[in-house]
């Protein structure tokens, strides 16, 4: 049974991306920074609060993430933590892993507002099967935000210019407490007429810019659009292999995680693993991103405004079985191929039981975007359980 959500999401879906960037986070995350829970916080307020906070008590973290000590390998994946204020609030709310939103080599605009709608798959359990006709026929999307929550995520991966995100990312890293880690996410940017070599070079440039902030580990988004309609970079494993080789040459021993979308074919997934982790180019996989579906309103018309937005990524509760499936298959491959890559399970984690389910499936770490947005206390609930 579904019911209306009550907590204020730390990202306000009724405001533009730019407004969220400038004024967020909201709700409990704003309170964690010492700001006004309703109206967000100003940079001055945050700076004041941070200067007043006492240093955290020293302790020995119980777990590790790519060799770096962390208290609980649970956090928020790339996307909803737009800048240092968001990542600092996440740390204070007990998320020991905070991924700084995917950055690019240059400023990149956001898709038109709105970007987030509530998504209601047809099935009684609210699950969206990536291979189903429903994804092509249309899934209802509107403003009824209910639990279990599923949403559209149609931003187009906006980024600030490096002049803005580099110092902000550096500050974000410095705000991590004992047993906490800031993970930067980045991706290459494709332009019309760009050669394959230029596209690889853009990834390398962005990785170098991230390295300059002092990153200890980094994530590269390969579940982003590639050449051809509805094709993602991770649907082209040889290209991912070439890019990760070039990036790895740039970043040396720093662990590289790649973010994968759902890959339905076992053969495709094994090939991806062999040409990346199997070659020592990639140390971890974070999966999944979103499931692509056509979104329609109650009249059957396109739900999100503008050309090229008939389909959107769906995330939240609807995609949990797909996320778990990818984690199980990656864990089985790891065993069979004798490799030792890390697995970060993402997709539809909204309760402490979901966290446990992902760990049992073979995830070394777990992250929640949609679940944490609407239930900012999720990390504490997992720690209490
Ligand atoms: C608001 C929002 C923005 C996102 N932006 C990005 C992004 O910039 N880069 C990325 O790799 N994934 C992005 N994602 C995808 C998430 O990292 C995650 O893979 C996906 O939402 C599935 O997890 P969930 O079911 O817990 O939401 C975004 C998700 C949300 C909700």
From TrEMBL:
**Endpoints of the signal sequence:** none
* Domain of life, per lineage: Bacteria
Q: In which pathway does it act?
A: Pyrimidine metabolism; UMP biosynthesis via de novo pathway
* Cellular component, GO, one term: cytoplasm
Q: Which UniProt keywords apply?
A: Flavoprotein, FMN, Oxidoreductase, Pyrimidine biosynthesis
Report whether Acetylation shows up as a keyword of the record.
Answer: no
Which segments constitute the Dihydroorotate dehydrogenase catalytic domain? 147-383
Q: Which Pfam families match?
A: DHO_dh
Q: Which cofactor does it need?
A: FMN
Under the heading InterPro entries, the entry gives: Aldolase_TIM, DHO_dehydrogenase, Dihydroorotate_DH_cat
GO molecular function term, any single one: dihydroorotate dehydrogenase activity
UniProt-listed GO biological process terms: 'de novo' pyrimidine nucleobase biosynthetic process; pyrimidine nucleotide biosynthetic process
> Could you confirm whether the keyword Repressor appears in this record?
no
What is the recorded name of this protein? Diguanylate cyclase
Species: Bifidobacterium catulorum
């Amino acid at each position: 049974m579904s019911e209306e959500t009550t907590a204020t999401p730390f990202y306000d879906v009724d405001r533009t991306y730019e407004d969220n960037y400038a004024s967020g986070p909201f709700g409990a995350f704003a309170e964690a920074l010492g700001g006004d829970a309703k109206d967000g916080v100003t940079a001055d307020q945050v700076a004041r609060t941070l200067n007043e906070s006492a240093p955290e008590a020293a302790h020995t973290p119980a777990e590790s993430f790519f060799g770096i000590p962390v208290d609980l390998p649970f956090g928020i994946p790339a996307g909803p933590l737009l800048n240092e204020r968001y990542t600092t609030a996440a740390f204070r709310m007990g998320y020991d892993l905070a991924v700084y939103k995917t950055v690019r080599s240059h400023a990149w605009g956001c898709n038109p507002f709105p970007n987030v709608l509530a998504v209601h798959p047809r099935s009684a359990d609210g699950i969206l099967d990536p291979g189903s006709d429903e994804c092509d026929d249309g899934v209802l999307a509107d403003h009824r935000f209910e639990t279990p929550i599923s949403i559209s995520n149609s931003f187009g991966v906006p980024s600030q210019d490096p002049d803005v995100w580099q110092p902000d990312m550096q500050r974000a890293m410095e705000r991590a407490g004992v047993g906490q880690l800031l993970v930067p996410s980045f991706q290459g940017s494709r332009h019309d007429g760009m050669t394959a070599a230029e596209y690889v070079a853009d990834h390398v440039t962005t990785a170098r810019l991230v390295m300059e902030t002092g990153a200890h580990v980094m994530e590269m988004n390969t579940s982003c659009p590639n050449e051809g309609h509805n094709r993602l970079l991770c649907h082209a494993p040889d290209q991912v292999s070439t890019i990760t080789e070039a990036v790895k040459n740039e970043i040396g021993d720093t662990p590289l995680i790649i973010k994968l979308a759902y890959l339905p074919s076992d053969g495709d997934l094994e090939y991806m693993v062999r040409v990346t982790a199997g070659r020592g180019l990639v140390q971890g996989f974070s999966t999944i991103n979103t499931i692509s579906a056509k979104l329609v309103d109650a009249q059957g018309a396109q739900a999100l405004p503008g050309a090229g937005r008939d389909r959107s990524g769906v995330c939240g509760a609807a995609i949990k079985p797909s996320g778990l499936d990818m984690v199980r298959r990656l864990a089985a491959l790891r065993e069979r191929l004798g490799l030792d890559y890390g697995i970060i399970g993402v997709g539809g984690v909204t309760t402490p039981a979901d966290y446990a389910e992902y760990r049992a499936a073979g995830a070394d770490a777990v992250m929640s975007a949609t679940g944490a947005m609407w239930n900012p206390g999720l990390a504490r609930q997992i720690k209490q359980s």
